[in-house]
Amino acid sequence: MLSLPLHPDHFTLPRILPAAPLPLAAQLHALLLKLNFHSHAHSFNALLAAYLANARADLAFRLFGGGGSSAVLDVVSWTTMVGGLCRLGLVDDARELFDGMPERNLISWNAMISGYVKAGRFLDALEVFDQMRATGLEGNGFVAASAVVACTGAGALARGREVHRWVEQSGIQMDAKLATAVVDMYCKCGSVEEAWRVFQRLPTKGLTSWNCMIGGLAVHGRCKDATELFHQMEREDVAPDDVTLVNVLTACAHTGNVSGGRHYFDYMVQRYGIEPKMEHYGCMVDLFGRAGLLDEAKKVIDDMPMEPDIGVLGALFGACKIHRDLDLGEAIGWRVIELDPQNSGRYVLLANLLASAGRWGDVARVRQLMDERNVSKEAGRSVIEIDSEVCEFQCGTLRHPEEKEIFAMAKDMMRKIGLEGYAPDTSDVLHDVAEEAKEASLLYHSEKLAIAFGLLRTRPGDTMRVTKNLRVCRDCHEATKLISRVFEREIVVRDRNRFHHFRDGVCSCNDYW
Question: Does the pLDDT value for residue 302 go beyond 90?
Fold first, then answer.
């Protein structure tokens, strides 16, 4: 175009800039200045987007600051900066700009809300969502989906219900994407029954909706319901995909249905031509490993047509820890650590395995390796939602306005279940110290602190919902079973892998997790 010669106008460059790599973006910036288009809003905003897309927030800030002296900045400019900074992980910088915006539209609000969601800061996302609602601004499907996903991440069922009601009352169209997000929210916040009701009311169900519901049933340990829904999907002529197979295999793994897992793996491959991927082999390793069939799990890895990744090896490693296979677990453990050297959970699992055999010298070796690589152990965190208030507790510390009352309740809670036969399980305590000290440390597990807080705020017959970032340890699992009976509460715990529904001294997992 330039060689004709034909000069571009101020609508030309905005179409090129968003996809421009950094050297070209800089050249186009210079051309904008030569043509005196830099003060045109479309061109200016496209240039901002180009620098942010190239991860040059510094250049975007320089341009944005320079544009601030003229009339070129508009709501699109501010929103472009907020959204671009969020995508680069600079959410605090984005929030500072967002708070200073002279005006905001729905796209601006959603940029900040979704930015927090992508950063895993779900409570901050809900705070911004509440601010938006307080302005009286009507929402849309994009804002609603972001808010629903924030509730999912926070494990905030009451907030999720509130957002769902807001969607229905606002007349926002429940398209397939939003409907699937709502179903997923109810599943992951512990209310699979509400998820089922939403799923059943969908006028049309796409494959994503079916997969979401099957996956939700799977993580709640409802294998029979998950496989029946799969067959219903088949009857409605919806062909499964590789995600469907993962969900069905997960359902089998969580309940120890080894024969079912074998059947569905072969069935979907042969009937639908689904080519097994890494995650499918990982599911089979998990299935056999949880069931204690470690030789079969290892055979799956040996026969795979590709090199196993960290997820597949990690599944076998975890099974070795559960079934206390020291030799295989140690061999796999060191291999896993080298493949995933910055994941603290791998070191902790290996150290736990070695500690169970009393090999404290090797435990110290693992800790030293963590120190040398600057790897910090991920602290256990538990979130509990009571009356729409979300509170987080961290393992080993108690910082809360009611900390004295919570700690007193935790001690009383443990005393009462002790009278019912509770015996502390210190097998996962990573310290070569006296047994009494190990038992004392169990009281500060984040799940117990969250449950103690819940007992202060609820009455017999109520349901408490706790979301953990780690797998439930043996001691907390046994303690929570007794707490549910002694204090007459239903306690729903979502850990890293699945849901546990505790009621009347029994867990829905039947102690298989």
Answer: yes
